[in-house]
Amino acid sequence: MPDHLRENTYPGERLGRPEQGPGSVGRLGRRIGALAIDYAAATLLATAFLGFNQFALPGEAGVTQFAPITVFAVLQVVFIPLIGGSPGHRIVGLRLELLHGGWTGLWRPIVRTLLLVLVLPAVVFDADQRGLHDKAAGTILVRA
């Protein structure tokens, strides 16, 4: 049976990725953990340096409600090219690379992050657990 008709037995198989261990597709639990770490860090940084107050009433002083997501996006765009992933990715043992290996470059993290903050592209994914944001950027999140 041709490869494109055969059902995958694990995420990443048709991409030539191992089933487990380094280089295998990062699974949902690690991805959610990385996202939680990154967003918590972004909220703390927005609070500490931008005066963001998530409990402020409308009209009160403080930075807008978009401060944490803006800091989150900056963290993604800066750290992915520098260390191969966001701080959350690296803490949970993931790294972002091009689909067939290698450095992501500078523009891919920007495209990926813009789609990630829209949320929907990140929650719609294929059998290889690649979200639309990763597919558009030509990247894959793998175990380090």
From TrEMBL:
It comes from the Bacteria. It is found in: Cell membrane. InterPro entries: Pra-immunoreactive (IPR051791), RDD (IPR010432), UCP021697 (IPR016795). Residues 1-24 are annotated as: Disordered. Its main location: membrane. Pfam families: RDD. GO terms for cellular component: plasma membrane. The chain crosses the membrane at residues 32-52, 64-86, 106-125. It is a multi-pass membrane protein. PANTHER family: PROLINE-RICH ANTIGEN HOMOLOG (PTHR36115:SF6), PROLINE-RICH ANTIGEN HOMOLOG-RELATED (PTHR36115). This is RDD family protein. It comes from Microbacterium imperiale. The lineage of its organism: Bacteria, Bacillati, Actinomycetota, Actinomycetes, Micrococcales.
